[in-house]
Amino acid sequence: MRNNGGFGAIGNRERGAIWKAKPSLGLMAAVAAALLLIGAVTVSAQENELAVVITEFEGQVEVRAAGADAWEPAEEGMIVPVDARISTSFDSRAILDIGETTTLTVNALTRMRIDDLLAEEDVDKADLTLEIGRIDGEVREHADRETEFNLDGPVATASVRGTDFGFDGYNLWVGSGSVDLTDRFGRQVVVRAGEESRTDGVRRPSRPRDERRRQTTVDTRPTGSGYTEEPTRTRPPTERVEDETGTIVIEWVLFEER
User: Fold this and answer.
1) Which of 176, 204, 232 is the C-terminal boundary of a domain?
2) Quick one: what percent of the chain has pLDDT higher than 90?
3) Range from 40-44, 150-154, 160-164, 216-220 that averages highest in pLDDT
4) I want to staple 189 with a disulfide (CB 3.0 to 4.6 A). Which of 76, 179, 205, 242 is the partner?
5) In which domain, by residue range, is 60 found?
6) Distant-in-sequence, close-in-space partners of 55: CB < 8 Å, separation ≥ 6
7) Are residues 102 and 17 located together in one domain of the fold?
8) DSSP state of 201
């Protein structure tokens, strides 16, 4: 009886071992599925990775990585990493692509730093610093993704969305769309297509309508000595000449010889 019981106990243990081996096979399948999922996520992340790529350049263009002592010559297809700087010399320029929506032209005598690049689920974010020079850019709209692009200058920051623009850290020109120009004190102005704004870091960013008025003002001062003071502007005129096609406003600035 004891032998039979012992044999039965052994059989039970064997059956238990066989029963316990079944979850091991399931665990292996689960691990394999997890590895496949991780691989798919990794590939997806690589596909959505945001990068700054030099697509073309002319003249002397150089790149210096963070912590590096020397500048390296630029090459077409070169990826400019985060915290790296790109610099252009006389009669030089570089074209950069950031993701699928942003193209920048780094003009001559310009130095710019890549501060941050982030590709989230449906938003591409890029933060750059313009240390000196001028950047022209185009930020295109995307059907499935939004773009948050900030270009930080010496005295102001241009926050760009769906537009083409030019910015040298002080003066902003917008070709299409709109750009928020914000100074170091948080004072902001919205600049739309065909408009300009500027700031010197002390005065608030100029209103685009003031820039239009400044550019169309007729200065009637004669050249020569004796006229070194700034013109004294009169109050805005109240008389307007109107017809079917539009409105013409004429502002006269008068000076008296002293």
Assistant:
1) 204
2) 48
3) 150-154
4) 205
5) 52-204
6) 76, 77, 95, 96, 97
7) no
8) S
The per-residue pLDDT for range 196-235, each reduced to its tens digit, is 999 998 999 999 988 888 776 555 455 554 444 444 444 4
Separation CA 86–CA 106 (nearest Å): 9
Q: Same domain for 126 and 17?
A: no
For the stretch 77-98, pLDDT in tens is 999 999 999 999 999 999 999 9
CA dist., res. 75 & res. 56, Å (int): 8
Distances (CA, A) of 72 to 65, 93, 116: 9, 15, 21
Maximum CA pair distance of the chain?
A: 136
User: What are φ and ψ of residue 100, in 5° steps?
Assistant: -100, -10
Report CA-CA distances (Å) from 233 to 198, 207, 217, 224, 230.
21, 18, 10, 20, 9
Confidence class for position 24, pLDDT limits 50, 70, 90? low
Mind giving me the DSSP string for 209-239?
HHHHHHHH----PPSSTT--SPP-PPPPP--
184: which residues sit within 8 A by CB, 6+ positions away? 155, 156, 201
pLDDT of residue 120: 84
**Domain end position, chosen among 167, 188, 204:** 204
Q: Rounded to an integer, what distance in angstroms lies between the CA atom of residue 237 and that of residue 62?
A: 53
User: Terminus-to-terminus CA distance in the chain, angstroms?
Assistant: 136
Q: The tokens of 220 are what?
A: 């009637």
Strand 188-192 to strand 196-198: parallel, antiparallel, or no bridges (unpaired)?
unpaired
Contact 163, 176 (CB under 8 A): yes
At residue 18, what is the residue type?
A: I
Same domain, 68 and 189: yes
